[in-house]
Amino acid sequence: MKKNKSILLLSFVLASTLLLLSCEDSIDKVNSPIPYEQIGGYDNSDEVAATHLVSKFSFDGNIADSKNTITDGTGTNVTYGTGIKGEAYQGSASSFISYNTVANSIINLKSISVSMWIKTDPHTGGAQSLFMIPKKTDFWGNIFTLIEGTGPATTMLLKNHIQKDVTPSISWAGQFIEHGGTNVLANMFGVWKHLVWTYNGASSTYSIYIDGKKLDIPASIAKRYASDPATGGAPYGELANSEVSKFIIGGYQQHLGAPWSNPDDWMLHYTGLLDEFRIYDVALTDNEVSALYKLEKDKR
Fold it and tell me: Please, where are the H alpha helices in 145-282?
């Protein structure tokens, strides 16, 4: 009798297990995965202003631009670290990436948005260059971003540069847009920060965003002019790069050799982490920047 009960119990357990496995298998086959909730109307970061994304570097073990507008790259002392999404470019005092071929979609930018994630520390001794669109016949390049040395202070002095080379020429063709004085960037070091800056050629307006939020900056920084507005200077208008040759991440055009002279001592390579570097040919909207920040932070 005891033996029969044991056999009956074992049969029940086996039958229950088979039924459970069958149900689970049926559930997996019939039901689709639950989708992520959209952010700002987008499912992933590449959907944000997708038709205006002209360049994208994810640095997942390589230096390639997935949009193939900046190509033929060579890395010097390049390594990779843990990124905000996959891997990231790890800069150093001698690291940079040079690209020999730049497409017209970059050369002919009239408006721009530059988006990136950075994780870096304060430094001294000069200015670190995050990227540069070089110019063959000028000491300064066309478009680029620098971080000035402010260490040991914990505020970041950021400088962005834009260019407008037209005929007839304008007085303020090359412009530094500087976040100094009361407009230095706080709490930017030691953690991942999402940095976006935009220039709208139609409205001659510059904007900057940190972690998806637009900063309140004075009109003296936001509004750009072709010459002194106090004497009737007109709005700056559309960008106009000239004599573009190559592209560099983590350094200056002077680090590329001829036709440029040797770099000055203050021209430093970027030593921090850099991830999800993007260039758009429009000024992104507030909603687009916010969505891009949240989606990339969510690794989408």
Answer: 219-222
